[in-house]
Design brief:
457 residues; alpha+beta; Phage tail protein beta-alpha-beta fold; six-stranded mixed beta sheet; 7 helices
């Protein structure tokens, strides 16, 4: 397909018009713009008669080094997707618990060659990632990975994956600010090998529909393959279930009370908040919630400024009622509300002083655009993920996305950078969250996490 441009020339005779068009054609063929409208161009690189994948990759790397900034994206042959004899990455299968410092990481040795090594990264007492510091050599199969145990808690576990030729090729270009990308194909069973390399854009046949591209389901798969986004979405008691049958579609919907049983969270014994004069609200809430909900974990993260000058006693029957009363009272009397919510088995009370480390969102996390739904409250639909919590912080993207949207021939062909700036930026606190999934659809847009959040200065 070709772009078409119609030019109407006024005040020129035929000879002048022909000369004008000829000058445009000469300009387009002799400059990097390569077209009247700076249209992207595709090139075929002739690297010589090179046999073997390793030699071909070396030839391409040499060409890129010798011709910096000439091309930004490369479509690679399918046979470059093959395993090497070194470790490429480690997927965390269980982050463990109780770690106060990063554990040591040990790889099993190959029958002949050098042993790989790596370092672990922890977050909130659990291992979330492993960086391969030395890939080793001589591996004919992926080695086993072991972690040292914490002083108190459970030991982490993970699985290693051998690097592929494409991984090694793109390793020098994987920085978030890089402008060089490699497009390749692989299988659905090995797509996880490429999820951590920002310079690689891989596609694979969909496991349930081999004739279609896997791209549609890629966002959901990336969530499954990204250990930082994995986690428990919800747990609790099924309150109600109902089925429906429309044509050939049969569905079963479940209404789940998150955080515990309906009896324990909705209709426990009367909840009594005994907030005595001179006592901090954090102490009163901790005692109240621990007594009313002994099977749940209680977390109170509010500052010490909430102190009454008189006794305040409140009795209610549900956690929702307690949360509404505390939010209204603290907003009116102290000018800063205290919120109460449920994250799985944890009941969390927090105020504006609660500042967990913000989770950086990427453009590829979004399904649609962030939207203001009421004054000072934004709703964001994301690829389904388990690392977000009520009261937690998220930070919206600051600039250009990591993945390429076009193939460029020269820096002068870059589109306006304004297009790659997010309308919304900064930090936001999550005040409500829900997860929506359709088990009959592999489409990434059918598996989403929806958060409501307030801007945080």
């Amino acid at each position: 397909m070709r772009d078409k441009v119609r030019l109407t020339l006024y005040g020129l005779n035929n000879q002048q018009a022909i000369q004008f068009f000829q000058s445009l054609i000469d300009y387009s063929l002799n400059t990097d713009a390569f077209g009247f409208m700076n249209s992207p161009a595709a090139y075929v690189l002739e690297l010589g008669n090179v046999s073997g994948v390793d030699a071909q990759i070396t030839a391409l790397q040499t060409w890129i080094t010798d011709n910096p900034g000439q091309l930004y994206a490369y479509l690679c042959p399918a046979d470059w997707d093959y395993s090497k004899d070194e470790v490429g990455s480690v997927q965390i299968t269980s982050g463990g618990s109780g770690y106060t410092s990063a554990p040591s990481v040990t790889f099993s040795a190959p029958s002949s060659g050098t042993t790989a090594s790596g370092t672990a990264t922890i977050q909130n007492g659990s291992v979330v990632a492993v960086t391969v510091t030395a890939p080793g050599s001589g591996y004919t199969a992926a080695p086993t990975v072991t972690f040292s145990a914490p002083a108190s808690g459970t030991t982490a576990s993970g699985t290693a994956t051998l690097a592929t030729a494409l991984n090694i090729l793109a390793g020098d270009y994987s920085e978030p600010t890089g402008k060089t990308y490699f497009f390749g194909t692989t299988s659905s069973g090995t797509i996880g090998n490429y999820t951590t390399n920002k310079a690689l854009v891989m596609t694979a046949p969909a496991p349930t529909a081999p004739s279609t591209e896997f791209t549609a389901a890629m966002p959901f798969y990336q969530w499954l393959a990204n250990p930082k986004q994995q986690g428990l979405l919800a747990e609790g008691e099924i309150l109600q279930s109902w089925g429906n049958w429309e044509g050939t579609e049969m569905t079963l919907d479940l209404l789940v009370n998150a955080g515990g049983t309906w009896a324990s969270l909705a209709t426990p014994a009367p909840i009594v908040l005994n907030w005595t004069a001179g006592t901090e609200l954090s102490v009163a809430l901790q005692n109240c919630l621990a007594f009313a909900f002994p099977d749940n974990t209680i977390k109170v993260a509010i500052n010490s400024g909430y102190v009454q000058t008189h006794d305040e006693i409140h009795v209610c029957s549900t956690l929702d009622q307690l949360g509404e009363w505390v939010e209204q009272l603290t907003r009116i009397r102290f000018g800063s509300p205290v919120e109460i919510g449920v994250n799985g088995p944890t009941i969390l009370a927090f105020d504006e002083s609660y500042q967990p480390a913000p989770i950086q969102l990427a453009f590829t996390d979004f399904v649609g655009q962030p939207t203001w739904i009421k004054p000072n409250e934004m709703q964001v639909k994301l690829v389904m993920r388990g690392d977000l919590t009520l009261g937690g912080m998220v930070e919206l993207p600051k600039g250009m996305q990591d993945n390429p949207g076009i193939v460029l021939t020269a820096a002068s062909a870059l589109p306006s950078t304004i297009r790659y700036k997010s309308t919304f930026s900064g930090k936001f606190r999550i005040i409500a969250m829900r997860h929506v999934g359709n088990s009959r659809s592999p489409d990434g847009a059918s598996w989403v996490t929806i958060i409501n959040c307030n801007p945080y200065a």
